[in-house]
Amino acid sequence: MRHGVKKIVHFINGEFVPSTRIFEKRSPLTGEVIAEVAEAGRAEVDAAVHAARRALRGPWARLTLAERSDLLFAVADGIMRRFDDFLAAEVADTGKPVSLARRLDIPRGAANFKVFAETVKTAATEFFEMATPDGRGAINYAIRQPVGVVGVICPWNLPLLLMTWKVAPALACGNTVVVKPSEETPQTASLLGEVMNAVGVPPGVYNVVHGFGPDSAGEFLTSHPDVDAITFTGETRTGEVIMKAAAVGARPVSLEMGGKNAAIVFADCDLEAAVEGTLRSCFANCGQVCLGTERVYVERPLFDRFLVALKRGAESLRLGWPEDPETSMGPLISHEHREKVLSYYRKAVALGAEVVTGGGIPEMPGRLAGGSWIEPTLWTGLGDDTPIAREEIFGPCALVMPFDAEEDVIARANDNDYGLATAIWTTNLARAHRMARSIEVGLAWVNEWFLRDLRTPFGGAKRSGIGREGGVHSLEFYTELKNVCIKL
Ligand code: NAD
């Protein structure tokens, strides 16, 4: 092992397990190798799935609902006790500003366990009384039971937050899990294994295997015949592959996938709030948020003023070390991803876009020069039919376009394969309701962006997803609902 380079291993059946195969994890900040990560082959995935299967029938199954719920509260507290370790691991893997991870990633990772520990205790099931020809009648009641071993495939943009968004409800419902974190962000998933052991979650309930997608841990897990259900967050193309794998054995899938989200700014908006919200939705987490905005439609009378304010905001973002309190934007996750984003930056120019700000790679000082930094970028001058307006770029960039009429902007916003989220900025209440109903998405914000009540449904329409997670909606996926009919 090289000096200063961490070793990240699998977590199987309550133990930390290495592999003979390893891969390097590089810092998005500097490009330097920061970790050597074990890569799971079929054998490790098999061991994890079997551990999860055994655990399903072990002491875990005998816990009462209240005991299971208490244990998940303990997991949440355990994360908060190790807050600084989780923060350091997440920031090292992603390069995101400490201020962001401290406010969002780590507390939400813990909160996910609390909200689902509470949800399962309070969720009701149905009861129906029915008449029968003999006059004695019958009753029906429904019970929720675990689906079994759940395969959890995660992305790199909000690693702990999005992983626990699935693991917490899965465990709350009594399932066991095998998690495959993104190869870009392996650390916090393994760290969570330490918390699980510390608070007494039985071995095999929570397992982690590291590796890549195709011909690696991801594919081995999703094609494993003993996995009962698969929940995935990531690109739509990957989701399609996973859905095919899940078709073998007709296993249920929950898919949270890509977006090409529109912000719609009416001339009657609260300008300050709309600019602030749109800046966040375009540039938070270096634009690597599935809910983020990459199309901004602005009503024509406000267009010039709004663009000036957005440009000023983009240019005031500070790129730098995560610990620096002045830093407001980190790098992209990797050089590979930067190459993808830059290909769109080049395409925009080739198509005749006007670059309002940004458009390239910033000059970073010292060791940061080796990182995958990119400039926050705004364009105008392209239409809805270009790849810049149609395809998910997943970077800190947006195409800003004017519109004239409400019906026109509804049609344009909806003319896209994706349907994840939208942010509507207006002070006209009737219009806010009309717009929220008309835009084809799973999540519509009015005069906000990213405000989340974890009890509410979360997911995408069209190619952005299948199913909803959040609150009682997660129970739909993570449990089998069984009807019991009793003749009286
Ligand atoms: P990705 O699809 O490249 O990878 C996601 C995960 O799938 C990784 O763990 C990867 O190793 C694994 N994987 C890849 N190929 C696989 C295969 N053939 N079989 C099994 N597993 C495989 O996505 P990403 O680049 O990590 O994340 C960014 C994407 O995620 C964006 O499209 C973004 O919009 C989307 N996203 C969606 C949501 C949402 O809630 N809808 C949230 C965050 C991110």
Helix-strand layout with pairing:
Layout: E1 6-8, E2 10-12, E3 15-17, E4 22-26, E5 33-38, H1 42-56, H2 59-62, H3 65-81, H4 83-94, H5 98-122, E6 127-130, E7 138-146, E8 149-153, H6 159-172, E9 176-180, H7 187-199, E10 206-208, H8 217-222, E11 229-233, H9 236-247, E12 253-256, E13 261-265, H10 271-283, E14 293-299, H11 303-315, H12 335-350, E15 354-357, E16 377-380, H13 387-390, E17 397-403, H14 406-414, E18 418-419, E19 421-425, H15 429-438, E20 443-446, E21 461-462, E22 465-466, H16 471-478, E23 479-487
Parallel strand pairs: 1-5, 8-9, 8-11, 9-10, 11-12, 13-14, 13-19, 14-17, 16-17, 19-20
Antiparallel strand pairs: 2-3, 4-5, 6-7, 7-23, 12-22, 15-16, 18-21
Helix pairs in contact: 3-5, 3-7, 4-5, 4-7, 5-6, 10-11
Order of strands in the sheet with the most strands? 15-16-17-14-13-19-20
Mean pLDDT score, rounded?
98
Ligand roster:
nicotinamide-adenine-dinucleotide
Query: CATH superfamily of the largest domain, please?
Result: Aldehyde Dehydrogenase, Chain A, domain 1
CATH class of the largest domain: Alpha Beta
Assembly state (oligomeric)? single chain
Give the DSSP E fraction (strand runs of 2 or more residues).
Answer: 15-25%
Number of strands: 23
Q: Unreliable segments (pLDDT under 50, ≥5 consecutive)?
A: none
Please tally the helical runs, counting DSSP H or I stretches of 4 or more residues: 16
Q: Could you say what the CATH architecture of the largest domain is?
A: 3-Layer(aba) Sandwich
Number of domains: 2
Structural class: alpha/beta
Q: Estimate the global geometry from the Cα principal axes.
A: globular
